[in-house]
Amino acid sequence: MSLQQLSHDIAAKIDAKRNRLAILQSQIDEVENQLNSIKNQTQDYLVKTLKSSLIKLTLLKKKLVNLLSVEDDHIPFNKERAKLSEDVGTTFNKAMVIRLEEVP
């Protein structure tokens, strides 16, 4: 094999490797673009989900404040109801005792 033929074969191998490197670099670039797209989609999803969660948390907090306010309003009512129940029970018991005493 002549030196010229050997040089030509080496140049062909180098060109083939350059082409292969170009293809690989193109594939790497494509995968990097896909990765960046996925990162952006993930970040957008996280931001959207976080905003939604904060809105729901705010609504829940408002409902809790309203519920606590309603409970505070009902505490005196519940105390009055308990006292009334106690008074009714006491009155009923007294009435039963009186009726039992009336029975011969």
TrEMBL record:
This is Uncharacterized protein. InterPro entries: NDC80_plants. Keywords: Coiled coil. It comes from the Eukaryota. Residues 14-48 form a coiled coil. It comes from Tagetes erecta.
